[in-house]
Each structure stands twice: as C-alpha cells, then as structure tokens.
Amino acid sequence: MKLIIITVGYRSGEHIKQLFESLKKQTDKEFSLILINNSQDDSDEIKKLSEQYSFVSFTANPINSGFAGGNNIGIKKAAENQADWLVLLNPDTHVENDFITGLKKELTQRSGVVGIPIQEENKVVYNGTVEWLKPTLRHSDILRDIRMSYAIGGAMAISREAIQKIGLLDERYFLYFEDADYSLRAREQGISVSFLSQPVVSHAVSASTKKLGSSMLLRYHMRNALYFNHRHAPWHYQLLIPFWSFFVGLKQAAKIIIGRKREASIAILKGILDFHLDHTGQISGFTKSRIKLGIECENLEDPKSRWGVGHMVLNLLEEYTKDKSLQDKYELHLYFKDFVPNDSVLQNPVFKKKVIGGRFFNVFYHIVLPIRAMFDSVDWMFFPAYMLPPLYFGKSIVMLTDDVYHEYRHGSLPFRYRLAYGLFTNWAARFAEKILCISEASAKEVSRLYDISRDHIFVAHLGTTSKGVAGAGGPFEYLLYIGQMFPRRRAYESLLAFDKIAPEFPELKFILVGRDKYDPPHIAETVALINKKLGSERVIYYDYIERDDEIASLYANAKLFAYISSREAFGLPLVEAAGHGVPIVAKDCALNRELFADAAFFVRDEQNIDEIAAVFKEGLTDTVERKRMIEAYKTLIPKLNWQSFAQKFFEQIQTH
C-alpha cells in the first residue's frame, strides 16, 4: 500500500517538529509526507527543518490558500505519485510509534473516506456531527456511523478512487466546514464514509487557527455555516436560511447597541454579509501586505465647502502620495458620492477611487457607504465629517470637535442637521475605534462633552504649507477674514468694529472671504450698508475664491488677520495667516494659547464691538508687537505641518 501523508502548515514551526519526530519513530517506514507551507514568514525555517527528515517533501505555497487550498496542492502531488491512500494530518498533531502499521491494517479493509480518531484534550473524538442552521460543527466522542456524521479534516484518510470521483476540497470555505462538505459530497456520490476506533492521533486543538484571532474565526464560522447549509441542507431548511441569517444579524446588532461583546458581534455580522455578497474563499485581512484604509470623501465634491474637513483630507492625501513608505503599508480607498473632483492629487493612480452614488446624502452616508466599505473589506474607515454610520461595523476613526457638539445643542443649523449631528456624533463617541481631535484643547472638551475616555482620543495638529514669510504688499492695505461665516466666528462683529475704526484709517480696506452661514444671511447686506455709509468700497466680500494661489496671496499681503471665533477645534485660518507672517487677532482662549502662546492680539469679549475695534487699532499700529509676533511665527508655524499630521494619523492605524 502506497500511503502519503499531507500536512498544511501556517506558522506551525513549534508544533510541526513534534509531528516529524513522531513519524520518524514509526516501525513501518513505508510512507512519505508532503508538507505544504502556507506562510511565507517562516518558509526558510520550515524548509530547513523538513530537510532533516528523509520522508518529508517540502512545498512553499506562494499564497496562503487555507486548509482546503493547501491540502489540494498536496492531493494533486500525491495523485501524481500514484498514492493508494492520502492521509490528511494537521501540523499540530503527533502519533504513536505503531500509527502507520495500525492505519494500514485498518485501511486494507476500507474504501472511500475514513475518519481517524483524534485525542482532543481529555477525550477521543471519532467524527463530527452536522446540525442544520447552526454556526458551528460538533466533534463527537461517541463512535457513530450515521448519515449526519463526517470525517474530521485534522485526521482523515481518502482513497485514490474516492479522490477520482469526489474531486478536491472546496476552496470556497478556506477554513472550517470543508471537511464536513467533503464527507457529504462523498455520500452524494455513493462513496463510503466510515470511522475508525484505532489508531488515535493526538491533537493540540486549533494551534494554527488561533493565530487568526477569535473575531476572524467567528466570521469564518458564520459565513461558512451559511454557505454549507445553502449547499447541503434539505430544501425546507434552505428556505429558512434568509430568516436565520436575519435573526442572527438582528441579535448581533442588538448586542452592538448595548455594548455586549461588540467585537464578536461585528465579526458575526461581517460573516453574514460575506455570505450574502458571495464573498467566498480567503477573507481579506487575514494575510496581506497592506492595510486597507477607506476614507469618506464626499466633502471634496463641493469646492465651496472645503474650508475645514475637505482641506484636511486633501492634505492627508497629498502627504500619502509623497511618502512611499506609507504607500507600502496602506492601501487607500476613496469613496465619493457623485463624482471624483479634478484635483491633481485625486488623479494619482495610487488611490482606489469609488463613486458609489446615493441620491440623497443620508442614503449615501448612512447606508450605501458603510455597506460598500464592508463589501470592499477595508480594515479601517476614516469618517472626517464627525458622524459614524450605525451600519458600519468595522474599525473606524472619526474626527470629533467640541464645535459640532455645541452646534447640535445650541446652534442655528436647521433641525434635521442638528438631529443628525446629535445622533451620529454620539454614536461615534461610543463605537468608533479611535477619535481624532485636532488640538489638545479640543480633545479635553470632546472628552468632557461626549464622556469619552482620554485614552480613546488621539491628537494630530493640522498643518500649513506656508513658511512664515509675509508678501511684498498689495495696492492697498487691508484687514482680512477667511472662513465660513458661522455666527460664532464673529464676522458680523468684525465688520461693525471695522466700521468704527475706518475713519481713522482712510486707506484701509476689509476683505472677507467665505459663505454666509447666518440665519438669515446678512453679511452681504451689512457690507453694502457700511460701504454706503463710508462713501466708497471699503469692504470687499467674496462668497468663494476657487484658486489656492489667490487665497495664498490674500493671506500673504494682509496687514492684519481677524478670526475672533468663540470656539474652534483648531482654527486653521489663523495658522495659515501666521504662516504667511501676518499678525492675527483672535479670541483669548486655551486653544489659541496652545497654538500661538502670546503671539497674537487677543480679544477677551468677542461680542464687544468696542473691544474688537480697540484691538484692531492696536494690531495695525503697534509696530513693536507686530514685529515680535512675526518673528515668533517663524518658530511656531514650522511645528504645524501636514507631514506630522499624516504620521500621527497613520500611526494610530498601525498600532491598533
């Protein structure tokens, strides 16, 4: 009898030597072993070990093709060598000295598929038992040869004739249920499936599969259970599969909401989704060279809304394109609602760009986006726009700010926006893997307002591309405001303060750039009234300026920059202005002290028009302070750069 053992290893070095040693001591040495190594991490080490045993033939699998795929390589090789019997043995098993002798004796009286008993911990199991609509399979310590029993893949013999009729193991399982599937396929072909009482194989239970982690095991179990039932269950059970998967999914969703075993529930839900999306074989994320990161990019589609979130995302993507080491570690999937904007960085082929549609924003963001991201099997998802969709069950980073909290609690946005922010920022606070804050001051407030552990939050300061050098000056001097004009940012109060000082500075103008977010809008009306009162166009208002170089020129040539916001998570316009060497007027608060120390003209009461006017005058006339601040910016601003932001961001993914 020509008997060939097939063993598939995956990082099994500590166990496989014990198997080899037990086989080396066999009294019957008429056998050989084909070792398929599914891991490239220890391939050289396992090859050297294999070369010490004359009966071992080593094959390095260039990919991890799982239990079924690895064994199929061995089965093909054994068939080429005209083996009478193939014996599948797990790498974390070992046998007694007379194992081959006893096995050959038993197999001479058998045919088809034969289950070999396995010592698992404190009991011997003889076969597995199929139960319909169950996510797992049971190993039985009672020797029963019934139709619902199957040969356990960890120790199973298959005759040459059976292989020729049944074929190979089904690689769509990758891991789990493929042995039960094979026995049922054998019976469907009229091939015998039987079970031995001797000899016994000793097994260290799931030593290889433990390396996947419990969540991945649950995901494989759930997906493969559904697939197995779909293939083999009686028709009346198959009718129940949609209801079963819905019931299990509903149960897991409830556990996620109440915070009970959330990671396990997410894995089970992913398994259900894998089945219904026909994701078979290896699940992405088990072995791969790069981490898949998805980024929600709808905020880039409207150029007029790119002031904060969009600006941050674009610069993060820019840094990724510049850093080959980031490209080697991370694969970025960018999700757009309607179209990919024509920014040069977005045309870079290093990104995998997806336009996924959804007529309404809420449909796109809360339904289509999370389902597509899970369909793509991304490892992480970045939601920069503050909200975590409840239908997304994977690892996520969500940016949160104290601004958005105050906006939904006390702001002037329409009720539907406040409701969405209230629901989904709190969902993010509870269920996101990590919370991104863009300043220490904001992190402290977010932790307090949303009741989040500080350990759950990481801080990455936003950056600026300017170098701290002022422009050469324009045709006239001007005070500058840039940013969307929410009431808290005091554009209206700044206009009234300018109106007060304008007669003292007859050559000074005030340029404002940004969308009017007051309810109702009244910036344009106020500008017109002030210009009429002053008798000339002293205030210039732009709703939007598209070109970045024009914005940069406005910053660089300004006399003074005003952005007296009551609260901000970061206040990027102030950083940009300081980066261009322009003295700034800002609210005296923890954030601005964190970023600028004392290098600003501070306003204590941002609603006091007279105080703002007085600080404007000081900022325009105090040449000593202006010079000191401009020098300070040359030290402060280089510390705030997009490269540092990107490094801190990607570090969070790498370390979790």
From TrEMBL:
<dbReference type="Pfam" id="PF00534">
    <property type="entry name" value="Glycos_transf_1"/>
</dbReference>
<dbReference type="InterPro" id="IPR001296">
    <property type="entry name" value="Glyco_trans_1"/>
</dbReference>
<dbReference type="InterPro" id="IPR029044">
    <property type="entry name" value="Nucleotide-diphossugar_trans"/>
</dbReference>
<dbReference type="GO" id="GO:0016757">
    <property type="term" value="F:glycosyltransferase activity"/>
</dbReference>
<protein>
    <recommendedName>
        <fullName>Glycosyl transferase family 1 domain-containing protein</fullName>
    </recommendedName>
</protein>
<dbReference type="Pfam" id="PF00535">
    <property type="entry name" value="Glycos_transf_2"/>
</dbReference>
<dbReference type="InterPro" id="IPR001173">
    <property type="entry name" value="Glyco_trans_2-like"/>
</dbReference>
<feature type="domain" description="Glycosyl transferase family 1">
    <location>
        <begin position="477"/>
        <end position="632"/>
    </location>
</feature>
<feature type="domain" description="Glycosyltransferase 2-like">
    <location>
        <begin position="5"/>
        <end position="166"/>
    </location>
</feature>
